[in-house]
Design brief:
- It is a single chain.
- With 129 residues, the protein is of the alpha+beta class.
- It folds into 2 domains: 59 residues, Ribosomal Protein S8, Chain: A, domain 1; 55 residues, Dna Ligase, domain 1 (2-Layer Sandwich), CATH 3.30.1490.10.
- The protein contains 3 helices and 8 strands, in the order H-E-H-E-E-E-E-E-E-H-E.
- The protein starts with a helix and ends with a strand.
């Protein structure tokens, strides 16, 4: 199973249904991606919890004053059946800099802007705007 794709789908569906909070399966990579979402302002917060003796992450989704979700789109780029790798010269800004791309690099997970700044390429996991 692709836990990253599952997490992104749960967040996307939660935003469309105007949920205040969604629960996703815990994994280290999911937690790192959610940390980046929090740092970049796409979610309000998160906490680790247990549900039926399984570790989960509760994500608090954000909305603007007109009740529109902060997250407009989440796209999984690199998939288990088709990995997508980019060099730092080939990283393109997402929606002209309004969104971010998350890369898995040799230095850990980072945004596209951080990867360009550090001259590091890697696997392009997902894009959010």
């Amino acid at each position: 199973m692709d836990t990253i794709a599952n997490m992104l789908t749960i967040i996307r569906n939660g935003c469309m249904a105007k949920k205040q909070e969604v629960v996703v399966q815990y994994s280290k990579i999911n937690e790192k991606i959610i940390e980046i979402f929090k740092r970049e302002g796409f979610i309000l917060g998160y906490e680790k919890d247990t549900k039926d003796n399984h570790p989960v992450i509760r994500i608090k989704l954000g909305y603007d004053e007109k009740r529109r979700p902060i997250i407009n789109a989440l796209v999984r780029v690199s998939k288990p059946g088709r990995r997508v790798y980019v060099k730092h010269e080939a990283i393109q800004p997402v929606k002209r800099g309004l969104g971010i791309a998350i890369l898995s690099t040799s230095k850990g997970l980072m945004t596209d802007k951080e990867a360009i700044k550090n001259n590091i390429g890697g696997e392009l996991l997902c894009k959010i705007w």
